[in-house]
Every structure is written in C-alpha cells, then in structure tokens.
Specification:
There is one protein chain. The chain is mainly alpha-helical. 52% of the residues lie in helices and 3% in strands. The chain has helices at residues 4-7, 10-19, 24-34, 77-80, 83-101, 104-111, 119-131; strands at residues 64-65, 68-69. Strands 1-2 form a two-stranded antiparallel sheet.
Length: 133
Amino acid sequence: SYPDSIRQWCGLIEMYAQANNLDPNLISAVMLQESAGQPDAYSKSGAVGLMQVMPRDGIAANFQCINGPCFSNRPSIDELNDPDFNLQYGTQMLSRLLKRSGDIREALRSYGPMDVGYYYADKVLGIYEAYKQ
C-alpha cells in the first residue's frame, strides 16, 4: 500500500532486504521518509538519493569528527546517485546498525540525522506501522 513512488523500487527493495536480513517494509518506510522515492533527492545537509546517504564529497566533506572528516570512507555523490547502489549501500548501513544495536529504534536513531535524537526513529517507525499489513 506504499505510494507508487516507493513501489516502483519494489524489486530492488526486496532484493536488498533479503540480502541484508531486513523487512522490505522497513526499507520502504526509511525511503518514504528520506526521499519519498525520488532517486535524485539531495538534502540541505548533503545526503543523497533514495536512502539519503551522506557521501564523502560535496557539503558532507566539510563535516569534521574527532578523528577527521566524518564521511571520508563513504561513496561519492556520483556513486550514490545510482538508485541501485544507493539502495544497496543504505540497506547495508541500516543492517549493520541493527546488528550492532540489536534494536530497530536504536538503529534508526543512528541512521537518521545526528541532532534529532529519537524523533527520526519514531517518525520512520510510525510510517512502518501505518503501512505494515
């Protein structure tokens, strides 16, 4: 029951959900929140594509963490503009966060913007529950 803008990516969502042991509906909820299914989405913070992944270049290159640039090990904007690559990378990130934390809400909090606490996680979980059937 997701909008067509999300359902058009169903094949990729299902493939990467299975590959990363994630619920396809959770991936769809993240995608709806992040990009509304628009592969060329670009946020004011510099996140790119369907899953709104922060790249190593562009605006994100200026973000500094304790040990240097925060996203230096990430793919480039050009790579993340490819919907297939973006979905693959974003679902792998989410899967790793879920394995590390053991909790969907914690994984989503870590996936989302750093300065919003659980707001992002709760928003995605609300979407997930609303469309889960």
